[in-house]
Amino acid sequence: MRFGGVRYEGSSFLELLMREHGELAPRIDLAPDAGARLSGSIPHGTTVVSLKYADGALIAGDRLATEGYQVAMRTIEKVFKTDEHSAMAIAGAAGPCVEMARLFRIELEHYEKLEGVELDLEGKANKLGQMIRQNLPMAMQGLVVVPLFTGYDLKQSSGRIFKYDVTGGHYEEIDYYAIGSGGKDARSSLKKLYKQGASEESAVRMVLEALFDAADEDRGTGGVDTIRGIYPTIKLVTRKGITDIGQDCIKAAFAEIVKARQAEEAA
Amino acid sequence: MAFPFYVSPEQMMQDKAEYARKGIARGKSIIAIEYQDGIVMVAENPSSSLSKLSEIYDQIAFAGVGKYSEFENLRKVGIRYADVKGYAYSRHDVTAKSLANAYSQAIGQVFTQEMKPLEVEILVVEVGEAEGRTAMYHILYDGTITDFRRFVVMGGAKDASMVLLEESYRDGMTLQEAIQLCCKALLKTNGNKELSAGTLELAILDKKREGRQFRRIQSDEVRQLLGDVGSA
Lengths: 267, 232
Prior knowledge:
By secondary structure, chain A is α+β, with helices and mostly antiparallel strands. Chain A has helices spanning 13-20, 34-39, 94-115, 121-134, 136-140, 183-193, 200-217, 247-266, and strands spanning 44-45, 48-53, 56-61, 65-67, 70-73, 79-83, 86-93, 145-153, 158-164, 170-173, 176-179, 233-238, 241-244. In chain A, helix 6 (183-193) crosses helix 7 (200-217). By secondary structure, chain B is α+β, with helices and mostly antiparallel strands.
């Protein structure tokens, strides 16, 4: 039984697209040298951070997208809920990144509906790796997509963080990780600040400090914009699901950081 | 050259329909009714892993009676159809109406062209805040499609339970009232054999939920909601 000649029988949405709906599959065929010209003229997302704390993990990102040396967008969303217990954050060419996040969410949901069970967290991380590997030809041309993937492992009762390379290789991080143009700066910040088993409040504080430092050192990372009221996105990944940290809460935590840093400067 | 016997088209269709009806009548019934926050579906199903109710999309659910392998196949086809459509356009563009029409076409085609018709009846239900979005489509083994409001019973012996629902249904029931009514109606279809939480499969489409509105109700919760209604 099928509608309109669909023959594919498996549980993967991406494969279904590629086999039966080639026109919808996420592939851009570029001339060999087009990538270099393209990558300066399309928006790029910058710094995203993930770290573990007492109740699970937290995943956050700044809100800036750049086009070469220009600001492309001040309020881009780089952190996405992918299902009830996982979220991903992206750095790289914004178009393919956002598309991959959307596709990955559908992929997980599609599998869950067809099979009647959720994929194991490890399975989700592998699947995302395959999707990134398929993007390799585009990555070689400069349209790089690299995510951070964070999930709550119900079996291990803890948050888990996976980082990726362009070939789809993925590696689990023990405590925290950050990627993107300001990723290194955010990591250096966390290297000094990070404490295992932190409370939600101090986890939010740590991640904001890291993003603050990244924005301070890296021109591509967006800082907090108090005039326009733009704050980073922070999502909690816990047993209860994915929850957003409200802007008021972030605003208050940010004000405290500013106060503490001003006091340090004055001293 | 041997000539096949002439069989009139009427006779052929009648035979196929009778064959399909017999197959379906062996199965147990499913009831779907509207309650204050959406739609609840109740199936008598002794198996805990082979389900008859399923999520299709954010606001759309599926139920099948008859031959498991056949409606399971239809369910999967429906999920693929909905996900591709939602990806190509937007999540809001996936409607039960177009899905039900696609089912009707596909099932009707099998009925007229293949030797063996599908021995299934299926239900595609949808909830929504917009006017006319909440709907329940019932599709028969020959592709006949009917849309219902308030409640629908499919499979097996459904006449007695239809009478009961006709008498007792009222708008704006709570989830518990709706489930208890469904169980009373199901008792009519199975000759008043006892129903317990373990032999029931329940799922709801809850308009109050964000995003995916389908939710299965697990058996300990069913037991609570059911009270002492299960026993005849």
